[in-house]
Amino acid sequence: MAEQILILDFGSQYTQLIARRVRELNVYCEIHPYNKVPEITSDIKGIILSGSPCSVRDEGAPDVDIDAFRGKLPVLGVCYGAQLLASKYGGEVLPSTIREYGRANLDHIDLHHDLLKEMTHGSQVWMSHGDTIKELPTGFEVIASTSSVRVAAFKVEGEKTYGIQFHPEVTHSLEGKNLLRNFVVGICECNQDWTSDTFIDATVAELKAKIGSDKVVMGLSGGVDSSVAATLIHRAIGDQLTCVFVDNGLLRKNEFEEVLDSYQHMGLNVIGVDSKQRFYDALAGLTDPEAKRKAIGRVFIEVFDDEAHKIEGVKWLGQGTIYPDVIESVSVKGPSATIKSHHNVGGLPDFMKLSVVEPLNTLFKDEVREVGRALGIPENIIGRHPFPGPGLAIRILGDITAEKVKTLQEVDYIFIQGLKNHGLYDQVWQAGAILLPIQSVGVMGDERTYEKVVALRAVGSVDGMTADWIHLPYDFLGKMSNEIINRVKGVNRVVYDISSKPPATIEWE
Ligand code: XMP
């Protein structure tokens, strides 16, 4: 990679947002935990110190050897990062006596300053800190204040070291992007030449050099990440890549055929494997959600391994891992607690002695989509809602049978097509239907019925970590309910899930 900004993470919930904002400026950046600072190579043009839930006054507060780079490279401390700079060099950081959360305005702002250019008097910023900088060290000067926070921004005289107590990365800081541009482009002198096309060229060259004439195998899921990763690898090494797309019998209606067809049109060398029965056999009688996930994960690896063994001399395994997965596993907070075991991030079983190649492990999801578009991948793959690896198995509560899968596929099909036909699909982050393990009484014609209940779910989200239910129009929901009950045999009641995550989750299991 060419030039980049290094972001040292002290554990703030906003650190990923800083990275996204920097990348929106077409400048590459990486997040590293404060306690694992990488070697400061010449491609690093500047360093941002993130916020933190900790206080610099705490015993054992997160710390970093700032002298190793201060004065040599531009440094911007954000919130905790700014307080760390102040307290380390002789200033004073104390608990705030007044509220310093939420909106504030920079009433005093030195607009001649290179960090604050193109901002305006009274600029709205977002504060979120329990501590505040009371005194700055000698040689540090205040360059912006609010009515209650004197040291909202500071600069160290004679060097490119800055601190700000507000969060420029959140959208509530209305001119935060200007400030970050001033730092990254003006002060660090980054070129803004990091785009999908430069990423593709650099990655293809890297993949060629790394893989050479070896063979690669890769599992495709129909989702965006694995499709884009495979296309990049294919561009680098052509038919040395073999892709495997498994029909686990838990996909959406017609999905296997349609996606396989798209892959073939894209020129990928892909083997479609019908393993439906193998999965149904392994799932027979299982009702516990985690047991179902584990069984699916196990069978997937068995099927995949069988296919991989048919390819002679394969050395590499391609994976669609993206940046948030990587950050999560090395973050200050450590890997997050397992709420559900996501089998497809479980890594590689030992018996597959393959090296891993992950061309997307520096990209965020929206960047993966951009790269996919630049690679010419069809919109029906790029714009797809996320779909879980265990598929409909975690949307059929209780045990899995081929018949239940068929029923749910029909319901899901009506709902998803309905969203598309009514122009709602792209407004929803993820949608699907859930088959409940209960029956309810109904009446159809003159007959009493006692049939299945399905729930519809549609959520908005950015990354799946939190989500809210979407307020779909009532008349649309009414239409869906009618169509489902009239057309899907065995279903006589439709409900709509109005739970947010947290406290619920997106999937029911
Ligand atoms: P939850 O239900 O945890 O889902 O709120 C968050 C996101 O993750 C997807 N999900 C999975 N994806 N394997 C996957 O590949 C899984 O076992 C799994 N469980 C949930 C879910 O669809 C949503 O996008």
TrEMBL record:
<dbReference type="InterPro" id="IPR022310">
    <property type="entry name" value="NAD/GMP_synthase"/>
</dbReference>
<comment type="function">
    <text>Catalyzes the synthesis of GMP from XMP.</text>
</comment>
<keyword id="KW-0332">GMP biosynthesis</keyword>
<dbReference type="GO" id="GO:0005829">
    <property type="term" value="C:cytosol"/>
</dbReference>
<dbReference type="InterPro" id="IPR022955">
    <property type="entry name" value="GMP_synthase"/>
</dbReference>
<dbReference type="InterPro" id="IPR017926">
    <property type="entry name" value="GATASE"/>
</dbReference>
<comment type="subunit">
    <text>Homodimer.</text>
</comment>
<dbReference type="GO" id="GO:0005524">
    <property type="term" value="F:ATP binding"/>
</dbReference>
<dbReference type="Pfam" id="PF00958">
    <property type="entry name" value="GMP_synt_C"/>
</dbReference>
<keyword id="KW-0547">Nucleotide-binding</keyword>
<feature type="active site">
    <location>
        <position position="167"/>
    </location>
</feature>
<dbReference type="Pfam" id="PF00117">
    <property type="entry name" value="GATase"/>
</dbReference>
<dbReference type="InterPro" id="IPR001674">
    <property type="entry name" value="GMP_synth_C"/>
</dbReference>
<dbReference type="GO" id="GO:0003921">
    <property type="term" value="F:GMP synthase activity"/>
</dbReference>
<protein>
    <recommendedName>
        <fullName>GMP synthase [glutamine-hydrolyzing]</fullName>
        <ecNumber>6.3.5.2</ecNumber>
    </recommendedName>
</protein>
<dbReference type="InterPro" id="IPR025777">
    <property type="entry name" value="GMPS_ATP_PPase_dom"/>
</dbReference>
<keyword id="KW-0436">Ligase</keyword>
<feature type="active site">
    <location>
        <position position="169"/>
    </location>
</feature>
<keyword id="KW-0067">ATP-binding</keyword>
<dbReference type="Pfam" id="PF02540">
    <property type="entry name" value="NAD_synthase"/>
</dbReference>
<feature type="domain" description="GMPS ATP-PPase">
    <location>
        <begin position="194"/>
        <end position="384"/>
    </location>
</feature>
<feature type="binding site">
    <location>
        <begin position="221"/>
        <end position="227"/>
    </location>
    <ligand>
        <name>ATP</name>
    </ligand>
</feature>
<keyword id="KW-0315">Glutamine amidotransferase</keyword>
<dbReference type="InterPro" id="IPR004739">
    <property type="entry name" value="GMP_synth_GATase"/>
</dbReference>
<comment type="pathway">
    <text>Purine metabolism; GMP biosynthesis; GMP from XMP (L-Gln route): step 1/1.</text>
</comment>
<dbReference type="InterPro" id="IPR014729">
    <property type="entry name" value="Rossmann-like_a/b/a_fold"/>
</dbReference>
<dbReference type="InterPro" id="IPR029062">
    <property type="entry name" value="Class_I_gatase-like"/>
</dbReference>
<feature type="active site" description="Nucleophile">
    <location>
        <position position="79"/>
    </location>
</feature>
<keyword id="KW-0658">Purine biosynthesis</keyword>
